Every structure is written in structure tokens, then in C-alpha cells.
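Progress note, project year one: complex with flavin mononucleotide.
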Amino acid sequence: MVSRRMILKTGVAAIVVLGVGGGIWAGTRNPDRALAPWRQAGTGYGDARLDALAYAVLSPNPHNRQPWLVQLIGDDALDLYCDLDRRLPETDPFDRQITVGLGCFSELFRMAAAEAGYKATIVPFPDGEPSPRLDSRRVARIRLVKEIVKKDQLFDAVFDRRSVKEPFDISKPIASTLLADLVSGERHGGTVDMGVITGLRELSWNAHEVETLTPRTMQESVDLMRFGKTEIEANPDGIDFGGPAFELMNVTGLMTRENVGDPASTSFKQGMKIYDEMLHSAMGYVWITSAGNTRTQQLIAGRDWVRLNLRATQLGLAVHPLSQALQEYSEMDELYAALHKSLGIEAPSRLQMFARIGYGPRIEPSPRWPMKTRLIKA
Ligand SMILES: Cc1cc2nc3c(=O)[nH]c(=O)nc-3n(C[C@H](O)[C@H](O)[C@H](O)COP(=O)(O)O)c2cc1C
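Model obtained:
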């Protein structure tokens, strides 16, 4: 089975062959600066809003675009905006996923504030809900009030939460009691039934094929790929290929921005093989629905999602969102309808998040822009 981890191991073996020099070089390739926000959260900034923001930037979000922008207001409030340049127009033409990511952000902010003894009141879209795309209006006004507020037990998992883009252990089924714990909410759904899983594995693989074989949607991902330490530290977002193995493959021309999107290239075929095995290792699925598709419902879906992701982490389960079949562009229409049909979701209700679950490896956190770079200067 080929996986990102195996590429890593192979690369490490190559570096060992290169000898002491290769080993010393490999030891310097960790993109430390891009991971600093994971170490900085919790250090304290002397302002409860900045303290909570330092955690909120660790939220899951589509393609790790980190679309949040924040303006501090007075002594106790802030306005949350979408950075409109950080959207994904090809795969997310109505900014739905981006809004879900902003919902994750506001929920992690709320939890971090509670941890410090502040209640965060969040008013979604105070200037109205933008449609069909987001615009320069506020996504939320958030105010902090110091009061006795219940801490959230899920917050314990904030540093360990990941989106695990690796094969899961196909010898380890998930107990139905664990699934029930994960998806007990009214907007939640899930399955660990092998009969259903087999069909969903195929459907998510087909959706992956559509996204990667549609040139404009594939190009959107390619443009966001960061190869090696220098690129990742310069732009700590997007799709990161860090570590000495990927860096070696990049500098030797085996995997570059030019060939990785070309279906005739070896790196494209290798990428498809990795995804084939990864997607067929799903040992269950979870999903979040909404009764409609308003902007506020999208924010709530984000809140639900980050909570599910944190709970899965506490239960020792790995989750990997698979948004391809949820995407609203014509080439995906058939699979969008097929997924909704197979999960029994009828319009106006719709899927907001869909993910595979299983037992997966422990992986490194993904890069983040430092919290202070996301502040709008007064
Ligand atoms: C709305 C939304 C959609 C996402 N869709 C996908 C997806 O289709 N494929 C995927 O690999 N990850 C997906 N993710 C996970 C992000 O890639 C991940 O959150 C981001 O890279 C940051 O990594 P982290 O969650 O490990 O911190 C999605 C996350 C969100 C919030």
C-alpha cells in the first residue's frame, strides 16, 4: 500500500543511503515556523480575545485556506470577516465550505473563551446573509463577557485534533457504540455497516476521480500545493507536502506543480493510487446535515463538524472529510444526487459535511498562519 507515510519512509531510507550529509539535511526540513501557531496557543497575549483567537486559528477548514479575518472592536468585541481572496471558486462556487470552515472557527473561539472564563455571544451575519457568494459583510459579531461559564470537555482534544488523510486500519472495525456517541445529534448521521460502506467507498472514489480529472478543479488544488519547507513556511496554508521525502521528490522533478496535475504523469498516477487505497480503507462514515442551506445553517454545520472531529479524537478515531460529492459544479451533479439519495437526504435538507472514519496513524499538525497575521489593522 502506498501512502504519504510510506513515501516518507522511502524518502528517509534514501536519505540514509545519502549518508551523514543527507541525514543532517533531512533533520533541518521540518517546517517549524509553519507549525508555531500550534505551540503559541495558550501562551497568553494579555487580551482574552487574542487568547481565544490563537486557538480558533487551529480550526479545520477547506484546503487549509484559513479564510478568517478579524477586526477587534472596543475592549470586548470583534468582527469576523471572510478573506475573499481565500475562497475556492472552482470546487466551492457558492462559498459553502468556506462558510462551514468559518463556523468551525467561531466554535473553537467560543470554546477557548469558555476555558478562560468568558462567555462568547456570537451574532451570525449581523448585516444580512450574503448570497449567492460571500461578500465584504461581516460573518459574525462576537462579544466576550466575563462570567461563570461551563467549560467544554471537548476542548481537551484541541491540540490532538487532525484531519487524517491516510489509510485506515481495515482489520479494525468500529464499534456501533462509538458511532452512536459520535452522531447522537439531530443533524448527524453515520454508518459502520459494511454493506453500506462498500457502496460509499465506491461513490467517494468516483467523486475523487471527477474532481481530479476535471482540469479546472484539479488545477485549483495544484495551485495550492506547497512543496518542502521553504514553500510551506512562506505560505503556511493550502495542501502541504512537507518533510525530506516530498522535498527530495520535488527537487528531483519526480513530483512538481507542473506534472502532478497531468493525468499522463507518474506523479498523478501515484497520487490516484494513494487515494484509491485510502478511500477504500474507510471503516465507516459520518455526516452532518442541515434542514436548508442558509449561511447561518452553514455556520452551524461548522460548529457541529469541529465538535464531531474533537469527539472522534477523544474516542481514538480518525476522521477524514470527503467533500468531493458535496460540491456544486455541473460535472459533480450526478454523484451529488447519488450521495444524497443513498443517505436518504431529500431537498431542502442537504449534506454539509461527509467524512470517512476509522483507526488511523498519528500525524503531524498542518501549517497555520500566525494569529496576528489574520488581524485587520485598525
Ligand atoms: C468544510 C470542510 C471541507 C473539507 N473537505 C475536505 C476534503 O474534501 N478532503 C480533505 O482531505 N480534507 C477536507 N477537509 C479537511 C481540511 O483539509 C483540513 O481541515 C485542513 O487541511 C487543516 O488540517 P487539520 O484539520 O488537520 O488541522 C475539509 C474541512 C472542512 C472544514
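Residues 282 and 356 are 5 Å apart (CA to CA).
The chain is about 40% helix and 15% strand.
No further modelling is planned for this target in the current period.
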